[in-house]
Structures are given as C-alpha cells and as structure tokens.
C-alpha cells in the first residue's frame, strides 16, 4: 500500500485500483467496456453528423438530441480511455491535477446529462400535449437559453468540488478504490473531518437530480395521459412506445447514479466490485443507448442512416 507522509498536504499522484477484487479479470471486463465505448462514440458521432447535414432535422427535438450526444461523448471519454489503460496496461497512476479535472468533468457533465433529459422531456410534452404552441414556444433563441442554463448549472454547481478536495490534507494513502476519480472516493482518503463536504455533495446531487426527476416524471405523466385519450389506437400505441423507450433510458441513468451516490455514503455492506461496476454503468450505458433509443427509433434519423450506409 502506498502511504503519504503526514507533512505532505496533497499527493502529486493517485493510484486507481480499477474494479476492486476483480483485478485478475480486468482484461475480460475490458471487452464489454471497450465495446460499449466504441458504440457510444460511433452512435453519437453519427447522430451529430446526420442532424448537422440534414436541414429538415434542425428542430427542437433533434437539437436537444445533439446536445445530449455531445454530453455523452464528453462523459464517456472523460473516463473510458483511462479505465481501459488500467485494464490493458496496468497504467494505474494519475496526476493529482488530472484526477481533479476528471472528477469535475464527470460530475458536471452528469448534471448536464440530467438537464438535457429534462429539456427533451419538456420538448416531448409540448409536441404532444400542446402541439399548436410547440413551434412558437421552443424557438431557436429559447432552445439556446435552455442549453446555456443546463451547461451553466452543471459547471457552476460543481466548480467548487476540485477546490474542496485540493484543500484537504492527504496523509493516509493515495490509492483510490475506484476506476475513476470520484468526489467521495477522494474525500475518503483525507485525514480530516469531511462531513460538511460529503453533506454538500450529497445535497447538491439530490437537489439537481430531484428537481429534474420530478419535472421529467410530470412531463411523461401528462404525455401518457394525453396519448391514452387519443381517438386513434395506432397513434396512442406509437406515442406510448416512444415514451416507454425514453423512460427506460432515463431509469437506467438515474437508478445507477443514485445507487452509486448512496453506496459511497451509506452502503458499507455492498461489495466493492458491485458498487464500482454499477458506478461505471451510468457513465457507459446511457451514452451507448441514447443514440439507439432517441436516434434509431426516430423515423427521420433512421431513414437518413439508411441512406448514409446503404
């Protein structure tokens, strides 16, 4: 175990374990992880290219989808390359500054992902429940303002996190039992009282997540209420199928994220490898699934993909 001298306030590097307890099978774990990462990169880049080059797709739903794709690319690329280097080359060392930067990107872009899920839910609510006002309410100016608000919220709320960590004294160990730099995983290494920092981070996560989940749930509840009232059964089934697939992706994102946050703070009886595997899921699975659920299942994008590759 690598230890730090008590006179050293901060280490120059950290050591990432990867998946604790599963080090001997890292190479096998890397296969599905790498596959999901490649699918996320190809899928999201394809979505961005198609929407950019197809003028008929320059509409609110697709513009929000572009924002979600960019967020997914940043979120997955901030963790997977380093994670794969651990699995393949045993390159566990990460600089202190790089660790803080990775932590900021993970937390801020997770909040942005949540915000764009909410924006897309609102867009679907307006399109289905208030179709006559949809175009007049969600103008390009309003869409730009929503995007700016989501980005600023994610950046500003989590901007203090690197400073909260860098101000801590680390005199125990520089080994992080995780596959990436996460706020609570770092805070646990400090030899100081971190109760206030932990409470701040948890409150922030639940404030942002709770706000978004409440209004996403409200939007889809109103959407489902509306579609069940449609006179055409075929139209109702089509709208319900679309909404249910969206809800599934959102559920995967929030349930894995909440599990990870709570396990770090209260899940002392949860096996470390289970916790870390689930913690990786909310950074891997949504970026891989979003292009499929939001993109391929959308007729216009599906047709454009077919023309592009066939």
> How widely separated are the two ends?
55 Å
> What Rg is obtained from the alpha carbons, in whole angstroms?
21 Å
Give the % helix.
over 70%
Strand order of the largest sheet: 2-1-3
Figure out the total of helices.
12
Q: Could you tell me the mean pLDDT? A: 89
Q: Structural class, judged by helices and strands?
A: mainly alpha
Helix-strand pattern, N to C? EHHHEHHHHEHHHHH
Structure description:
This protein has 310 residues and is mainly alpha-helical. Helices cover 75% and strands 3% of the residues. It has helices spanning 26-53, 60-77, 80-89, 96-129, 131-137, 140-158, 160-166, 183-187, 195-227, 233-266, 272-296, 299-309, and strands spanning 13-16, 93-95, 175-176. Helix 1 (26-53) runs antiparallel to helix 3 (80-89).
SSE inventory with pairings:
Elements: E1 13-16, H1 26-53, H2 60-77, H3 80-89, E2 93-95, H4 96-129, H5 131-137, H6 140-158, H7 160-166, E3 175-176, H8 183-187, H9 195-227, H10 233-266, H11 272-296, H12 299-309
Parallel strand pairs: 1-3
Antiparallel strand pairs: 1-2
Helix pairs in contact: 1-2, 1-3, 1-11, 2-4, 2-11, 4-5, 4-6, 4-7, 4-9, 9-10, 10-11
Write a brief structural summary.
This protein is mostly helical and 310 residues long. The chain has helices at 26-53, 60-77, 80-89, 96-129, 131-137, 140-158, 160-166, 183-187, 195-227, 233-266, 272-296, 299-309, and strands at residues 13-16, 93-95, 175-176. The relative contact order is 0.15.
